[in-house]
Task: structure prediction
Amino acid sequence: MKKKLLSVLLTTAVLAGTLAGCGGSDAGGAAQSTETPAASDGGSEDAGSADAGSADAGSADAGSDAAAAGGDEGKVINIYSFNDELRTRITAVYPEIENTSDDGTVSTLNDGTEIHWIINPNQDGVYQDKLDEALMNQAGAAADDKVDLFAAELDYIVKYTDADADVAMPLADLGINSDSDLADQFAFTKTVASDVNGVQRASTWQACPGVLVYRRDIAKEVFGTDDPVEIGKKTADWATMKTTAEELKAKGYYAFSCYADTFRTYANNIAGPWVEAGSTTIKVDQKIIDWVNDSKEWMDAGYFDPTVTGQWNADWFTAMSSSAKVFAFLFPAWGIDTQMVPNWDGEEGAWAVTNAPLPYNWGGTYLVAATGTDNPTHVKEIIMALTGNQDNLTKVAKEYTEFTNAQTVMDAAANGTEFNSAFLGGQNPYGYFADSLSSIKMAPLSSYDQGCVELIQNAFGDYLQGQIDYDTAKANFETAIKERYPEITEIQWP
Result:
């Protein structure tokens, strides 16, 4: 395994699969990561039960890793993640958790087993570096130090589900039948989580179609209405959005906080992967250059808040507050709950959602059982509780306004008043999520996506802020990407 990790995790042998977009119930090109509920009886499935469908909860001999555990579970479950979201969601749906320490680092199960939450930030590749180091040492690690379960974002999921990497257990080896136990999942989420042989190696609870989230008070002042249908007419496409931005500017408001807010609507509609399978060449798609050029035009026109220089920083969070002059943000469901809710300090019900200028998806977290885990039964239970149980996926949708990876649940949510959001002024946003999902084409993936996405924004962010010229931004990206990925030999520009 160590050799494979060296050759796959730390170099370039990765899958770059292209998923065709499709409408309808399987939303093939839409939202990102998502594993879904059990097939026929997902709704009645016990969240804490490892018995899902025909799978045997205690089947530790289903695969080599489970067999190595000898049927005996370890005393420590090590779960790696890049933020607190995964702990929050698992705690909400996994009934075996008895309590969690005040600092959130340790949860104790009813049987005395401890979950140790190991969290490192995604930014600058820190999380992947820490996770890769642990996986590299997996075979020789003491039982209580082994990685048991880890989170992986869509931007780099193919790096870990590559069969040659040998770090992600096939779900079948845990006793999970993807066809029956996860039958309600959106088809594209299974494809994304599978290796080139079609073996599913990860599962997710999320689907991530993007929408436009806007301030109701600003809409009323500028446009005379906060009705999502009427506002949607003003955000129908980028040409219309430009006119709307000019109206907002005339009243002292910004359309979006910064150029980074619009990036995913371009980047998640690229025609080809950043890096083709087996290649060492990065191909910058024309959509990325379109984003640079359009962002420069919008910056010069005053449609962005000039004090906000990117995402995930204090100025960006402040732009979500009641004192800000920012009209809208582009977010999937998870962004509303994890970013907007904690940073809004005004009255409840001040926001609403409508269609974005261009359909897009953003993010999604997959659960991956680590090869070599000594807790296959617990890991299976957790994966099924969060990604394969319709009752739990319904709960997550209601409590966190998440678009979950369950087709029947999301179909019901679009028409159910119990899914109305107080944060969104009583609006049910699921119809807009579903409409976006049906229109999205899933961008082709590579394991280099996170680095490319981060570093291209960093490089051209300096250009958009007037600190460097265009050619210097290109050169800086080329330098930074080769430092992040030394195996890259060439960058091709459109």
